[in-house]
Amino acid sequence: MLGKQTFYAALVFTAIAATPAAAKGLTIEDMLAMERVGDPVVSPDGKWVAFSVRTTDFDANKGRFDVWVAAVNGSSVTQLTTAPESDSDPRWSPDGKWVYFSSTRSGSAQVWRIRPTGGEAEQVTKLPTDINGFRVMPDGKRLLLAIDVWPDAKSIADSVKRDEAKDKSKSKARAYDQLLFRHWDQWEDGKFSHLFVWTSDDNVRDLTAGLKTDTPAHPFGGMEQATVSPDGKWVAYVARVGGREAAWTTNTDIFLVPSDGKSKAIDITGDNKAYDFDPVWSPDGKQLAFTAMKRPGFEADRQRITIYDVAGKKSRVVTENWDRSAGSLEWSADGKTIYTNAENIGNNAVYAVDVATGTAKPLVEKGTNTSPRLAGDRIVFAKDTLKMPTELFTMKPDGSDVRQLTHFNDARVKAITWGDYEQFSFKGAKGETVYGYVMKPAGYTGGKAPVAFLIHGGPQGSFGDHFHYRWNPEFYAGHGYATVFIDFHGSTGYGQAFTDAISGDWGGAPYEDLMTGLDAALAKYSWLDGNRVAALGASYGGYMINWIAGHTDRFKALICHDGVFDTRGGYFDTEEVWFPEWEHKGTPWTAPEEFEKYNPAAFVKNWKTPMLVIHGSLDYRIPETHGMSAFTALQRRNVPSRFLSFPDENHWVLKPQNSKLWHDEVLAWMDKYTKKK
């Protein structure tokens, strides 16, 4: 255990060691060196906050996590765990005397605990399989666990025995009778994530026994989708509904099940056929807040804060008149306010929402502010900006007296010369106001700079004032590029109508916004060199690169990461088919004209701009055949091109050594075509 005095001494040493001889812009090495601070988890008395910190082990090609604790008043920051294995997801015991966490130090993912004052950690669970997530029950004696099991297994031991028999089989063939047969980056194997109540290793009860659905919902759901009532009698959880229709429906519901498992779960949102997410109990246990969408089949509908009255068995939408999508939810102690975060005009703000009226008051607006958590008479939240990786901050409940609580990356941030940036707006498609950001090269002293034109994915997403580890504008600024990024029609944080505008119009208004926005930036900022612009994007951003290739030759170089090449073929090889069905207004056999209207493959005859194509082999959302097809088209047309394939990555490049290679390859391609000879 590393105490706070040792920590501060280490921080001073790190500051000295990290300070370079001369100022420089952000590099991939800098990003890999940053310590990544996790979400805050506040102690029952509101005086302490636990969180995980990820460091990168470049040689081992992975990140590793440790658990830390900080005093909310800012007086101390203490590292609790130092094992070489990963320790993450800290949770407090109800009496505040223990910090529970997930660890792989025993060889599998199990629950451990340690005193918040330090000492030796002790193992709590010793189950024969990995635990995917956990929560401590209010009685402090039981745990809520998420574990992948065979749905018809009689016990965890029985499920493990079936795993062992399957592993011994020489045949590795897979057979499926329905979708989904693979999801995100994994093939479905017949097992599902179930919720269990653990009293001891010999007493583990499956609350979702027999169900052929995952809770938390795959592929991205975590334990924010399962919560225990304050009296410990009920568990609320999220599960996808649909059976064989799961691939073309977005229907997730919230269920209530007794924690003793003696009766079946009750579906409390069955009337809503769209997404319901992340239930949170009110302090008195009488209400359950969650976020809900309204339109089935649409994954980017507005997330409304909804409250379910447990006794009355009725739900009430709180934020129907608030044109923003709520993020994580946190009740005030008196149950009159819900704190949340939401994207807002290129930022992510924290709001206080009045439970009675639905009025949302912004508390902190600039930058990216997430995960607000009540801590006594203050609120702890996570904050980052384009010039600062995530740190924890605190503020008063009215948004005043904002203080930085952690300082993990202060020395590294100070040692870097950052590109200055500002937000700008222009009249885009449909005569509507569109926003973007422009950033100067790091240490800019004059002259015209080549431009990195970044295009975000989603497509319902945003590039804003946010420190990103895969698409970071400051990285390009650090290499001498000016950077421009536009939140085109379809982006989030500008009202639902603006977000909706992209559906059925992938190559229309968004393309117009991007071209008009770049023109507006070039006209306004004389230091941008419009003759040396490289465009790059991933996912939908990669689709747009392919679309751009067929519609303009204004760019010197293009970079397409995991982008859609063929919208028609993309329907048949993706896994969540609700997405193309919504975006293209049907299926290829019911609306063929919609799939062909903005299909990049139809305009390959116009391709002439040099393109770097990058794809992950484990990407089942936009499979690698799209990248292969784009590269084949480029090569056949004798367009300068390069194909970079990552066999061990999915839609994102996550492994440290792969990330470095990705950034090196991207810069080399841009430099080749945009830097002056």
Please describe what this structure looks like:
By secondary structure, the chain is α+β, with helices and mostly antiparallel strands. It has a domain of 257 residues: Rossmann fold. The radius of gyration is 25 Å and the shape is globular.
Detail the topology: elements first, then pairings.
Layout: H1 4-18, H2 28-33, E1 36-37, E2 41-42, E3 48-57, E4 62-71, E5 77-79, E6 87-92, E7 99-103, E8 110-114, E9 122-123, E10 133-136, E11 143-149, H3 156-168, E12 182-183, E13 186-187, E14 192-200, E15 203-206, E16 226-228, E17 234-240, E18 252-258, E19 266-267, E20 276-281, E21 287-292, E22 304-309, E23 314-317, E24 329-331, E25 337-344, E26 347-354, E27 360-364, E28 368-375, E29 378-385, E30 388-395, E31 403-404, H4 410-415, E32 421-427, E33 433-439, E34 449-455, H5 473-477, E35 482-487, H6 496-500, H7 509-524, E36 528-538, H8 540-549, E37 557-561, H9 567-573, H10 578-583, H11 592-597, E38 611-616, H12 625-636, E39 641-646, H13 656-674
Based on the model shown, name its key terms.
677 residues; 39 strands; Rossmann fold; alpha+beta; 8-stranded mixed sheet
Quick overview of this protein structure:
The chain is an alpha+beta fold and 677 residues long. An eight-stranded mixed β-sheet has the order 32-33-35-34-36-37-38-39, sandwiched between helices. Strands 1, 2, 3, 4 and 5 form a five-stranded antiparallel β-sheet that branches. Strands 6-7-8-9 form a four-stranded antiparallel β-sheet, with no helix packed on it.
